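Backbones bend. Shown next:

***
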Amino acid sequence: MTSDSAHSADLLVIGWGLAGLVAAGEAASAGKHVVIVDQEPRTNLGGQAWWSFGGLFFIDSPEQRRFGIHDSLDLARQDWFATAGFDRDEDAWPRQWAEAYLQFAHQEKRAWLREKGVGFFPVVGWAERGGYTATGPGNSVPRFHITWGTGPGLVAPFHAALEKHEAEGRVTVLPRHRVTTLTTVNGTVTGAAGDVLAPSGAARGVATSREVVGSFTITAAATIVSSGGIGGNHDLVRRNWPASLGTPPASMVTGVPAYVDGSMQQITASAGGHLINTDRMWHYVEGIQNWDPVWPGHGIRILPGPSSIWLDATGRRLPVPLFPGFDTLGTLAHLRSTGYDHSWFILSQKIIEKEFTLSGSEQNPDLTEKDLSLLVKSRLGKGAAGPVQAFMDHGADFVVRDTLDELIAGMRELPGGDVLDAERVRYEVESRDREIDNDFTKDAQIAMLRSARAYRGDKLIRTATPHRVLDRAAGPLIAVKLHVLTRKSLGGIETDLSARALAADGAPVPGLYAAGEASGFGGGGVHGYRALEGTFVGGCLFSGRVAGRAAAAAV
């Protein structure tokens, strides 16, 4: 065991994901001395955001206007609140955070990031398309702006700022420091204590040991909890699983590193913080097993265009409007009602070439490395993008065959494939294909994908020309087995608009603040039940900035 260590600072930040980096940077820029701790080795600075696609939600941006997209604060507010579905007394602060975040996304957010050197891919993506009425959930227009450089490009300026402050003595970075308690004196949070873990040279994202080699205490005038959510802890995900989504899956893949374990939730509650909306969560239904995993159970999300045929485990097509990319929560709820943990995409080579993107910085080397020649080849050239082709070649969930009979036989050979009804699959695919012969159709998915191609961005790089999936010229045929992929906590520590953590009676807990996913991205659940996408890293930016500035002003 090493000797105990003691530190003091104006501000303590727990967790060095994007929210923590932003909060620490804001406080240091205000002249405060900051200590930032994390249980992982320093290779993980930036947390989950580094692994992300770097998608950002803007309202009425220059990128939108160049593509003829007419967006407005009123339209975005309509979409946000219809999607969130706020319906609880505990949603009072989340509602106010939503209003504040919409203003930020409409006005200052883009300019603030541009000043820091962050750029954006010119084509705006259309995520969570909804498919209901104007007052239903979903984005009415494309709003998903991809950071040029993806997650690493978004993290970079805040990482650089932290290191600059560290070199100048305003920030102390303490890796492998795991907080086990928030210390309090007469109800005021005065810092934290915990374990020093054994040094680790593990690469980013790789699970590390929990061997304890010492202990520490940190005294601070203000403490910001920015420790992330629970997506790496399947037991906690299942424990918080909402009754509205049926029983939790027995089998899931994991979309975040193992350190996203929810360990600070009860520690914060024990210090007086109030956890709300813990049953609200955002897990994807297009998860695939990573053939080259970094962390345990590593899954990747497919970001699909709108053309793939989506079948449940038995081969029945999903109901309207549960098409790829339309309503994540609605699709998850439906699939949980089927009694099976997996579902299927069936598509053609022509569709996968145009429509399949894999979520994550490491799965998009063209955007992450800012490689224009690779980008043109990947997004506009012949053949599937390199990372997608690698999954087709090596992925356990991909079946590639020349005929439908061969494809169905291959699907049935995968675990759980025995419940697939071959005749039902054939009926669904052939029936869908008959609807393609006319420019008009009763098939809502075909009508939707034709509508999507009216948007130039989708037509250019995101939506395949409508065609028969069984057309030999569009082949070979591809089936993908899809898993539930854990990702985000939508609830968390309740905070006011200054990011002060609140007690159960609504009063601020003196000395305690929260930001990022630990606070439900603001207020204890700024998204309500559903997210419009591009709003997770954006929520970390906004809540981290608010927390850093407010805590610095208070000490």
Remarks:
- Residues 285-485 form one domain.
- The two ends are 34 Å apart (CA to CA).
- Residues 216 and 270 are 19 Å apart (CA to CA).
